[in-house]
Design the sequence.
């Protein structure tokens, strides 16, 4: 399992709580490579929607 896949798994599990999602998303940003960060952001928008992602972390805007 790659780090990107692991981060996606964690984000899916904590998506019920915006605060936990924000915390785990920021951890993922620190641990992933730049091209993986772009993939993760796109996946988050596709999976959870842009409104949720921006509410969870203003870095999406």
Sequence:
């Amino acid at each position: 399992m790659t780090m990107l896949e692991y981060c996606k798994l964690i984000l899916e599990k904590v998506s019920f709580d915006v605060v936990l999602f924000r915390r785990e998303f920021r951890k993922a940003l620190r641990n992933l490579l730049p091209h993986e960060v772009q993939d993760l952001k796109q996946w988050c928008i596709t999976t959870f929607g842009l409104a949720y992602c921006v509410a969870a972390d203003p870095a999406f805007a």
The chain has one domain: 3-60. The chain is about 80% helix and 0% strand. The mean pLDDT is 92.
